[in-house]
Amino acid sequence: MTDTAAPAADPRFESVDAVRERLRSVDYLSDEGIAGIVYLADRLGKPILVEGPAGTGKTQLAKSVAEITDARLIRLQCYEGLDESKALYEWNYKKQLLRIQASRNAEEQSGWEDIEDDIFSDDFLLTRPLLEAIRAEDPVVLLIDEVDRVEVETEALLLEILSDYQVSIPELGTVTARQIPLVFLTSNNTRELSEALKRRCLYLHVDYPDMDREREIVLTKVPGVGEALADEIARIVRSIRQLELKKAPSVSETLDWARTLVLLGVEHVDAETATGTLNILLKYQSDIAKAAKELSGDQPGPGRPAGSPGVTGR
Ligand SMILES: Nc1ncnc2c1ncn2[C@@H]1O[C@H](COP(=O)(O)OP(=O)(O)OP(=O)(O)O)[C@@H](O)[C@H]1O
Ligand SMILES: [Mg+2]
Asked: CA nearest 260: which of 288, 233, 289, 295?
């Protein structure tokens, strides 16, 4: 039994390993932690709050889970100023006005109460992503993307959905989900989320992948990349991430770099090639300069004695 209003669905996954395998089948390389939380969220009927640096696969996780569960992805992209009328629902005022006018023109005998009942019915409701997800009859995955961008007051709009999978519409009553959707909220941690929101979710911190997983991601996602090149790319990116940078390279930048190297016909990344293409990985001149210095072996890298070679040293 869950403490939610909506009925519990049949489990979508038989084990944590099954989650991992199925994610892999759609080219999403997870780890034990990621797959474990997805498995639990399904079993417990709880939303997942996914936090972590930019470009580490938070949004893609929700998309991939939708894909492997044959569910429709419904996405609410959050931004500053997002309000109820864009997140939940709004009344179709134009249509309501026309309906009122039409009844006047026809000199309808019906009283105002009848008209009111009519114009606040389903036919006049414009559903937005949150309500759409709750009312869906087919399986859905709800992605509330970059939730840290909305004001803290706006978070309150989400609370009823996240704990009870229902939406209260004053004029219509309470709409309850027929099935508990899998819900992902993502955050880049630009501000603290409210306790009320966090309490309703399972928490998943997605960090940069370790070297093996990043190499696998490169091999899976970049056509034409060889094992040796993927290995070098993962190593170099890891060493760059260990520097004190304004903005460390994300997985998406690793992938862009790998595609660039393949396009350039590179089979082996030497210091010169790496330095010449750093602008794909890094977006601040000061970071590029720091990384170039590290790659050329001028300065002692993390965990490496001074004078030992940069890129090519194994
Ligand atoms: N584990 C992974 N397996 C496969 N691809 C991945 C993985 N992690 C990241 N990627 C790839 O990296 C890219 C960026 O991922 P995504 O957009 O999901 O990041 P994000 O964490 O949502 O970033 P942001 O915070 O900027 O929105 C995508 O192309 C995605 O496919
Ligand atoms: Mg994202």
From this structure: 233
**Is the domain of 50 the same as that of 198?**
yes
* pLDDT tens digits along 206-229: 999 999 999 999 999 999 999 999
5: CA distance to ligand 2 center in Å?
Answer: 30
Do residue 79 and residue 217 come from a single domain?
A: no
Q: Where among 176, 205, 234 does a domain terminate?
A: 205
CA-CA distance, 98 to 255, in Å (whole number)?
53
The closest residue, in CA terms, to atom 30 on ligand 1 is: 57
Centroid of ligand 1 to alpha carbon of 232 (angstroms)? 20
Furthest-apart CA atoms within the chain: distance in Å: 93
Q: Is the pLDDT reported for residue 308 higher than 70?
A: no
Whether residue 32 sits in one domain with residue 172: yes
* Residue 98 structural domain: 91-124
Go through 223-245 and write b for each residue having 16 or more CB atoms within 10 A of its CB, e for each that does not. Answer: eebeeebbbbbbbbbbbbbebeb
Determine the Cα–Cα distance for residues 204 and 52; give it in Å rounded to an integer: 8
Same domain? For 27 and 107 the reply is no
Residue nearest to atom 4 of ligand 1 (CA): 28
Shared-domain flag, residues 248 and 264: yes
Residue 114 pLDDT level (bands cut at 50, 70, 90):
confident
Position 236 pLDDT exceeds 50: yes
- At 8-19, the pLDDT tens digits run 568 999 999 999
Nearest CA to ligand 1 atom 9: 57
Name the least confident of 95-99, 202-206, 213-217.
95-99
Are 73 and 162 in a shared domain?
yes
Name residues contacting ligand 1 (CB within 6 A).
Answer: 27-29, 54-60, 186, 188, 217, 221, 251-252, 255
